Amino acid sequence: MRHLFIGNPMLGELQREKNKALAPHNWQGSQLAARVLLVIFYLLLLLIVLVYVRDIEPYHVLYALLGLLTVLLPASLHGVIAGEREKRSLDMLLCAPLTAGQIVVGKFSRAAITMIGLVLAIGVPALIIEVVKEFYVPREVAMEGHTMGGFFYALLVCLVTAVFISSVTLWISSKTKTSSSAMLSTIATLFLFFVVAPAIGSVVRPISFAASNMLTLTNPYVTLINAYTGQTLRISMPYGSEQVATMPYTLVSIAACLLASVLFLVLATQNVYELSRGRKE
Prior knowledge:
It is a single chain. The protein has a two-stranded antiparallel sheet. The protein has 12 helices and 2 strands. The protein is mainly alpha-helical. It starts with a helix and ends with a helix. Helix content is about 75%, strand content about 5%.
């Protein structure tokens, strides 16, 4: 494990990119103007949040964060392996003294930077709203069972889902030969997980209540609000209604995302290893 993180040359590339971004010549002219505009836009966003804090709930912002992660992570990661394979620059990387695991960890670290940036940029306004709602401005809609910890629990759901999305995208990128096919395959796979599976859960509810709950309540977009509110749900059934505790399904969703992420990263490593072995042969 040590060689994956401490002695990994791929992580050194990130340090060089950071130094390049912070270099003085990159803080002049149009690049400086773009960064100033970005800061102004972000400050305006914070101002809007404070002005309309009565009308905005923190979970609204967290849903925006989850949506951005769902879109931006595949957009930034789909070509990290497939794109290099398409341009034939991957051959140089495979010939370098790097293991398949080091390559995958290095590529995944790019997703980590995107995740951290988005969570800080969007999570801070959400936290401001949460603090204001919790201590200063009464909520228009009472949330029985919600605590301050529910906010961080929902934020954890966003982070774990982001790790899952990144690992899926990286695995697909390692399996496909072009960036376009990697992007289309990633969209189809995420659509299957986030849309088709809950739809199937709704259809099978009259047949199997447990299977329906497992498919719908473990969906990250459902898990987020359940984690935030901490409430039980009353679900209508043909014979009446039942109360369902959401906490177990939230924990199952988080655990499943983490286990699936590890699995997809292992599969991506295996794919890169096979590409490397084929190159050497």
